[in-house]
Amino acid sequence: QVQLQESGPGLVKSSQTLSLTCTVSGDSITTNFYYWNWIRQPPGKGLEWIGYISYSGDPYYSPSLKSRASISRDTSKNQFTLQLSSVTPEDPAVYYCVGGAAYDYWGQGTQVTVSS
Fold first, then answer.
1. Of 116, 107, 92, whose CA–CA distance to 10 is shortest?
2. How confident is the model at residue 116 (pLDDT cuts 50, 70, 90)?
3. Which of 20, 21, 32 minimizes the C-alpha distance to 87?
4. How far apart are CA 58 and CA 82, in angstroms?
5. Strands 11-13, 110-115: parallel, antiparallel or unpaired by DSSP?
6. Distances in Å between the alpha carbon of 53 and those of 10, 29, 43, 89, 109?
7. d(Cα 54, Cα 29) in Å, to the nearest integer?
8. All residues at 6 or more sequence positions from 84 whose CB lies less than 8 Å from its CB, including other chains
9. DSSP state at residue 74
10. Strand partners, 111
11. What is the 3-state secondary structure (H, E, C) of 35-72?
């Protein structure tokens, strides 16, 4: 059974960098053709895809967040990490890590708030 768990600070100051880590158990993040995504849901809005890191370690980002987002991985810990720089009042959301071949596995989500 594949499980994903997000971790990181729930409160970030405006203009600083948000950093979240997803720990994966039950499968390897290097499994062929698996993609490891970050998705967020702002209050009252729909899901927004941020980006992914592939099984081979290649990242790809939403054009709207490409300038601020960075996704990396640590294969020794079976983790992948999101960094979102220069956070603004538009960035508070529940952040999910999602993986598999087709968004098969979801973390429970973690709430992120931005303070001024």
1. 92
2. confident
3. 20
4. 14
5. parallel
6. 23, 9, 25, 26, 18
7. 8
8. 17, 18, 19, 50, 65, 68, 69, 70, 91
9. E
10. 94
11. EEEEEEECCCCCCEEEEEEECCCCEEECCCCCCCEEEE
Q: Contact 73/29 with Cβ under 8 angstroms? A: yes
How do 35-41 and 59-61 pair as beta strands? unpaired
In terms of Cα–Cα distance, which of 60, 63, 42 is closest to 51? 60
Confidence band of 50 (pLDDT split at 50, 70, 90): very high
Task: Give the SS3 label for residue 10.
Answer: coil
53 close to 61: Cβ distance less than 8 angstroms: no
Provide the pairing of β-strand 105-106 with 69-74.
Answer: unpaired
User: For the chain, what is the mean pLDDT?
Assistant: 97
